[in-house]
Design a protein that fits this description.
The protein is of the alpha/beta class and 226 residues long. It has nine helices and eight strands. The chain folds into two domains: 149 residues, 3-Layer(aba) Sandwich (Rossmann fold); 62 residues. Helices cover 43% and strands 13% of the residues. α6 links the parallel β4 and β5. The longest helix has 17 residues. The relative contact order is 0.18.
C-alpha cells in the first residue's frame, strides 16, 4: 500500500462507469419525442460528466434555459427506466478494484449524480459491496467542486482527507479534492471534451487507464522513501 494513502474515492460517470451509452439513449428518446433527430454519441459524450443541466444544453441548444429545465425530469425518468442496459465498468476497473482492496485500501464514491439514480445503478451492476461510502449529489447541502462530499466520505471511511486520493474525469473532481486537502488523479479515459486538457486541472497525475491508480500508488510510495 502507498505510504500514507488509506482510501481511494471515485467519481462515477466517466471515471468508474461508462454510463454514456444509456444516457445517450435516454436523450435521443427525448429528442425523438420532441420531433428532433438523434444526436451523435461523440457529440454528446463529453457532457456526460458535467451534470443534467449541461447535458440538456448540449442536447437542446436551441431552447431557453427554462425550457430545458422542464425537459430535465423527463430525460432523467427515461434514463432511470433503462439505467443499466449498456453501462459497464471502464475496462480494467474490475481488476483494479480487487487489487486496491487487496492492498487494504478503503474505497468510496463521490458523485454529483442523485441518490435515486446512483443506488439502483450500483445495485444493478453488483458494485455496492466494494464501497464503504457513497456520497451523491443530494447527500449533503453542497456538492463538488465543494470539498464537503470528500470530507464526509473520508469521515465515513474513518480516514483523514490527507490520506485519501480522488479519481475523476472533470475539473471539479480535482478542485473538490484540492479544497479538501486530498490528492487527486485525473482520469483521461473519461468524458473529456477536445477543448479541455486534464493536465491543466492541477491533479497530482493524469492516468490513462484504471491500472494507473496502482502505478501512482507505487510511485507515491517510492517518493515517500518506501
Amino acid at each position: 500500500m502507498a505510504r500514507g494513502v488509506r482510501a481511494v474515492l471515485f467519481d462515477l460517470d466517466g471515471t468508474l462507469l461508462d454510463t454514456a451509452p444509456d444516457l445517450i439513449a435516454a436523450v435521443n428518446r427525448l429528442r425523438a419525442q420532441q420531433g428532433l433527430p438523434m444526436i451523435a454519441a461523440e457529440q454528446f459524450r463529453p457532457f456526460v460528466s458535467k451534470g443534467g443541466s449541461a447535458m440538456m444544453a448540449a442536447a437542446f441548444p436551441h431552447l431557453e434555459a427554462a425550457a430545458r429545465a422542464e425537459l430535465l425530469p423527463i430525460f432523467l425518468d427515461f434514463y432511470r427506466q433503462d439505467i443499466a442496459q449498456t453501462t459497464v465498468l471502464f475496462p480494467g476497473f474490475a481488476e483494479a478494484l480487487v487489487a486496491l482492496q487487496q492492498r487494504g485500501l478503503r474505497l468510496g464514491i463521490v458523485t454529483n449524480k442523485p441518490t435515486w439514480l446512483v443506488t439502483p445503478l450500483l445495485l444493478a451492476l453488483g458494485l455496492t459491496e466494494h464501497f464503504g461510502a457513497v456520497l451523491c449529489g443530494d447527500s449533503l447541502a453542497e456538492k463538488k467542486p465543494h470539498p464537503a462530499p470528500i470530507l464526509e466520505a473520508c469521515r465515513r471511511l474513518a480516514v483523514a482527507p490527507e490520506a485519501a486520493v480522488m479519481v475523476g474525469d472533470d475539473r471539479r473532481d480535482i478542485a473538490s479534492a484540492r479544497a479538501a486537502g486530498s490528492a487527486a488523479l485525473a482520469a483521461a479515459f473519461g468524458y473529456i471534451g477536445s477543448d479541455d486538457d486534464p493536465a491543466d486541472w492541477g491533479a497530482d497525475a493524469v492516468i490513462d487507464r484504471p491500472a494507473g491508480i496502482l502505478d501512482w500508488l507505487r510511485e507515491h510510495d517510492d517518493d515517500a522513501g518506501g
